[in-house]
Amino acid sequence: MILIAHKFPTVVIAFTVLIISVLAASAQSSGTGCSLKHIAGTSRQILRCQKGLTITVETGARFTLVDRDKDGNADQARVRRKALLLEAPKGKPGTGFQVVTPQAIAAVRGTVWAVDVQKNRTTVFVVRGRVAVRRPAAKSSVFLGPGEGVEVDAGVGSLTAKRWPAARVAALLARFGR
Description:
With 178 residues, the protein is an alpha+beta fold. 20% of the residues lie in helices and 39% in strands. The termini are far apart.
């Protein structure tokens, strides 16, 4: 191994990063009722969770799945960087999946939506269904419908839902291979 590391340091570094990524992804799915699947020919991953939740993970995304009610199923994702595309089936009131970022909380039932976390901003876009988005310290939410998005910064002003142009929607969904 030392000879390989000496002659091919880039290969050893790449292999080490791959192993760490796989271990981190495996840890991501343990205890949350989700299983991880890599998309062949890409670096994207899909988490398929119990109760029908599917999460497509953008390459480089940093997030944690949380089981808030301790029933063995993920019911929250805490996203720190990049984006997730979520597909949540309809559920009973109060049992929706929630995404928490430094700037926003997005909660839904029965929808397809994306949450993208950048340095000082969270963007939420709805493909299908409805999503309530609010700042962590706020009591009021803005409701997004299909084709609408909102950008949430660290400010305190009200949030405004906006219809996204087709090119912006296509660019976001392309990040997930759609």
